[in-house]
Amino acid sequence: MNRTRVIDIIRSNGILLVILLLIIVTGITERNFLTVGNLLNVLRQVAVVGIVACGMTYCIIGGAFDLSVGSVVSLAGVITILNINAGTNEYVAVAYGLLAGVATGVINGTLISLINGRSSEAFIVTYGMQVVVASIALFPSNGLFIAGRVSDGFFKSLGQGFMPIVIFLGIATIMQFVLMKTKYGRHMCFIGSNMDVAKMSGINVKLNRISYFALSGLLAGIGGIVLCSRVTSSNPTAGLNYEMDVIAAVVVGGTPMSGGKGSVYRTVVGAVIIGIMSNALNILGITAYHQQIVKGLLIIAAVAMDILNKQISLREMTHAKVYVG
Questions:
Q1: What's this model's pTM, rounded to 2 decimal places?
Q2: In terms of CATH architecture, what is 14-324?
C-alpha cells in the first residue's frame, strides 16, 4: 500500500517534484537564493500572475480557458493610467480599468455560451478577443510607454510593499472558499465534468459560464492595475505572454485542463513554484527567452501527465471490475 501511495503521489505531482528538485539544487549552490528577502521579492513578482491565475482556474474547472487575460492586463493598466493622468479621481480610474476587464470577460462568456462552446471553441473566441483587446490597448499611446503622474494614495499603495501579496492571497482564499463550500463551486465542477448532464439537471449553464469569464476578466483587470501601481506607469504590451505564465501556474498546480475539478490553493502553489523556478533560472544565468521555452515545455508535460493519469486510472478501474466480477 505504501508503494502504491508513493507512485500515486509521483503521478499526481511529478512536474511539481521536478521543479522542487531544481529549487533545492539552486538553494544549495546559491546562498542568497532561499533568503527571506529574495523569497518576499519573488512573492511580489508572482502576485500579478497569481491573481490572474485564480480567475483562469475557475474557467478551466468550468470546462474552458481564457487566452485574452494578458491583453486585459495591458488594457486595464492603460485605461487606469490615462484616466489618472487626465485628472480623474483615482478610485474612479481604477473602476474604469476593472470595468474594461469585466466587459471583456462578459463578451467572451456570452459568445462561448451562445455557440455552446467547449474548450476548442473557447480557444478560438478568446484568442480572437486577445488580438482585439491588445490592439485597443495600443491605440491611445500608439504603442508607447505611458508614464503615470501618480501621487501617494490609494492607487500607488496597491503595488507597494506587502499589498500585492495581501491582495493575491486574499483573493485566493475567498475563491477557494467559494469553490469548496458553496453551491456555485459545486455547479462549476459539475459543468466542467459534463456540461450536457448539468443542463439536464436544471443548472443555468450559460449564466454560470459567463460568470467564470467575467471573474477572469475582473481578476486580469486587478492584476493589470496592481502591475501599473508597482511601476507607476503603463505599457500597452505589459501583459504580453501572461496567458502562458498563468496557464503554467494553473496546470503545474494540478488543475487538469480537461476541467471538472481543481483547487485555487493549488494554483497559488503553482504560481509561487513557477516564480521561484524563474528566479532560480535567473540566478543560474538562463535568459528570459529560454525560460519561456521551459514554461512551454512544463505546460506540455503537465497536460501529458494528466492524460496519462486518466488512462492509468481508467485501466485500473477496468481491472478492478474484472477482478470483482
A1: 0.86
A2: Orthogonal Bundle (1.10)
